[in-house]
Amino acid sequence: MDTDGTIAIGLRPDGRQARVPLYDPQMGAVTDLYVGAPGAGKSVSLLTLLAAERINGIVSIVADAQDGMSLPEAEGRVYHFGKGVAATAATLAASNDLGKYREKISAANGWGSFEPGEPWRIANDTLDELNRILSADSTVPRPFRKWVTGLVGDNQATGRKLGKGIRFAAQSIHLADLGDKDRIRANAKNGTVWLGRTNSSTTQHMATDGVLPPGIYPEPIPRYFKQGSGNDIDAAFHGKEAKNGPITAGMANIIQGGTVFLARTWNARKEAKTYPGLIALMESAPMPRLSPEEDRVFQESYARWLDYAEALLAGDDGEGGGEGAEYSGYIDDEGDEPSSGSIKDRILDLLVDGPMALADVRRRMPEVAAGSVNNAMGELRQAGHVTPAGSRGTYQLAN
Fold first, then answer.
1. Helices marked H in 115-245
2. Element (H, E) at 300
3. Total-model pTM
4. CA–CA distance, 153 with 186 (Å, rounded to integer)
5. What is the sign of the dihedral through the CA atoms of 59, 65, 71 and 74?
6. Exposed (0-12), middle (13-18) or buried (19+): which is 272, by Cβ within 10 Å?
7. Core-most of 63, 154, 278, 390, by most CB within 10 Å?
8. CB-based contacts of 303: which residues, under 8 Å, 6+ apart?
């Protein structure tokens, strides 16, 4: 890791290194998005980052909502590895409790900023396949999704100045799914966005969410490289099908601070369904760990919130899961309700009582920008969750 907190994740087409930050000495911990369709190279890119974190003394807190199938090489080689939807939520909740612990100690000592290693290590959360929880069409119960969305908001609101970064990874995700506060969405925009091969609608949403600068569009990434510029034409003249070139796995548009550049992650070869080279890279350095007291807070919190998450997934209200959460910041003053969820969840809640005009929905959500409400309603309609009802601009829940 360079003095500016960056590592080389791969190469640009002109041979320059493609560098991304693991930590920003000026801004603090980072918030990143890694988005790519299956086979786009997202998993290799994430594993490369986890190897870099281990080599550079950064604590990796990892969860894979796909039961550990997306990042199996990380299991046992990072400080924490949660497998499955419930474990992903519990990992995020325990990481939030870790942040609350750091916040409490920092306030007691009058510390106003974070210095790596004084006294704590940088700790980055990597949450893969998060679309299984946060997307509007996910199959998890709405109370569970709302709770996780609240955790995401709490983490980003305070994590930066506590040396706690967060990295979201998904096949497709909209920034609106990450919460309804402008500062939360701004954190994702100010970090690194790794945009691999995706479907066109995902790229369109990334643009409308404001991640891309106005008038700037990412390079289209096909599934395969072509073998030559005249390959298709030559094949057509001979009545043959053009052969595909090598797969473009690892190719991505990397967006940082309003700039976009094309790059390809370092190549990793798969053997026996794993990446031995990346495993060896991870194991080339000792595993960074939390301090003993931090470890106690995290492990106790994880066990408690895993029970809570499993209860919510089973349709229970999860009562008791938050009792004794000494450093918890995501149970409200009533003590038994999860944090509020995304803009779309709030709209769906409002429409439970019947059709409502869009203008009235905006009035019921005064702290949310009108444009954000409009966009969320449009996405809900496109996904088939709401339909027009009666007069112009009025919507109802879909049957």
1. 131-134, 142-158, 182-190, 200-208, 231-237
2. helix 292-313
3. 0.76
4. 12
5. positive
6. exposed
7. 63
8. none
CA 43 to chain centre: 13
Mean pLDDT of all residues belonging to the chain: 82
Reference 219, options 245, 255, 253; nearest CA is: 253
CA 126, chain centre distance (Å): 7
Percent of residues, the chain, with pLDDT higher than 90 = 41
The three-state secondary structure class of 395 is: strand
| Those residues with Cβ within 8 angstroms of residue 96's Cβ, 6 or more apart along the chain or in another chain | 151, 154, 155, 328, 329, 330
- Tokens 């995020």 -> residue: 92
Give the pairing type, strands 80-83 and 59-64. parallel
Q: Is the N-terminal amide bond of 220 cis, ω within 30° of 0? A: no
Residue holding tokens 């601009």? 393
Predicted confidence band at 231 (pLDDT cuts at 50, 70, 90)? low
Angle at 127 between CA 119 and CA 268, to 5 degrees: 100
256 sits in which H/E element: strand 251-256
SS3 160: helix
Q: Is 273 left (phi over 0), alpha (psi -120 to 50) or beta?
A: left
pLDDT digits (tens, 9 = 90+) for 29-69: 888 889 888 888 999 999 999 999 999 999 999 999 999 89
Distance CA 155, CA 169 (A): 16
Distances (CA, A) of 9 to 109, 272, 275, 278, 349: 37, 24, 16, 13, 42
pLDDT in tens, 79-117: 999 999 999 999 999 999 999 999 999 999 999 888 899
∠ CA 81-83-87 to the nearest 5 degrees?
90
Q: How far is CA 385 from CA 138, 173, 309, 377, in A?
A: 12, 17, 25, 9
SS3 (DSSP) at 318: coil
Element (H, E) at 51: helix 42-55
> Which amino acid, residue 69?
M
